[in-house]
Write the structure tokens for this entry.
Amino acid sequence: MKRLIPFILLLVAAPAAQADVFTKVCLADGNTPLELADPCIPFVYRPIMVGTRLTIIISSDTGGNYWGGGLYISDPYRDYGVLIGKDYNETTTDWEGSHLEAAGPGATVLDQESSFMSGFELATDVKDTIPGDWFVIDYNATNVGDCNVWLYDYEFSFDEPNYVMAFTHVPTRDFDNDGIVDFSDFAVLGSNWQRTDCLEPDNCSGTDLDADGYVGISDLRQFAEYWLEKTR
């Protein structure tokens, strides 16, 4: 099956499919929405730090019918982000924690892996679905760069995504990897202040955020942009 990412990120689903199935992208708490980079451009989100975990929720405003689809990352984007299911059952090979009550008792979330893409096949119960949140999949930003996540609605197409969620990853400001950018990370920045010997891959403990070899005002500004932001 050939899957192609559109050059321009546009919603390509038929009107009925758009109304029935949609996604919400939240921070790791599952409640706080991740802002768009531009409110006028859908599905293109503001930059997040490497190490940030998001929650992608697939929901519907209708119920009572079977629905099948998928959530995928293709090459070369698999180098930058990963989709993660919840509560895997080795006996049924189903990610049981990733399908929610509204999807019905017969819902499934199954791994799908190939040479060019990875992700999950999503299916609701044949009839016992209700409006609400159907599926939840975690997303983790693993490397600096861009990553596209495709949502497929098989009622619309098996070959073209319903739409594409676009994420941009920047270097982490959570230098001590405790899940939040705070004074302990500021202390790491301060301990490297005005160093001129920053080289990859360490980049002065990651504090040379603009990778110019020097820890200075530019790095402080970039650090402050994510002050008190949580990564998980």
Q: What stands out?
A: Residues 1-19 have pLDDT under 50 and may be disordered. The CA atoms of residues 178 and 231 lie 9 Å apart. The first helix runs from residue 15 to 20.
